[in-house]
Amino acid sequence: MGPSSISGAVAPVLGTPEEPKPKNADEAAKAFESLLIAQMLREARGERDEDAIGSTMLDVANQQLARMLSEKGGFGLSKLIAGGLKTEQSR
Predict the structure, then answer these.
(1) pLDDT tens digit string along 45-70?
(2) 3-state DSSP percent of the chain in helix, strand and coil, to 5
């Protein structure tokens, strides 16, 4: 069983759960900021020679960290985005 067959077996189990749709502009903005932070963490980690399982576990950890950061205010982007979305909704 090579690394590619292991990652194929693990990926469905460790895949990200289906996220519920945001109910309002604040939730949508926090979700977007969370995705942005997760991508930044992934890029900061860079391209390393990691095994598929280790890479998947780091991605899951990065997603959780990003979600927690955005819930606590993150970089402040969610407030700016939510404000813009609310302004557009009121038009």
Answers:
(1) 877 766 888 888 888 999 999 999 98
(2) 75, 0, 25
pTM of the full predicted structure? Answer: 0.64
Distance CA 76, CA 5 (A): 41
Domain assignment present for 46: yes
Q: Taking Cα atoms as reference points, which of 15, 78, 67 lies closest to residue 37?
A: 67
**53: in domain:** yes
Q: What's the mean pLDDT in 23-46?
A: 88
**Structural domain of 73:** 25-90
Q: Provide mean pLDDT across the span 18-43.
A: 85
Number of domains in the chain: 1
Q: Contact 52/3 with Cβ under 8 angstroms? A: yes
Q: Residue 71 in contact with residue 79, Cβ under 8 Å?
A: no
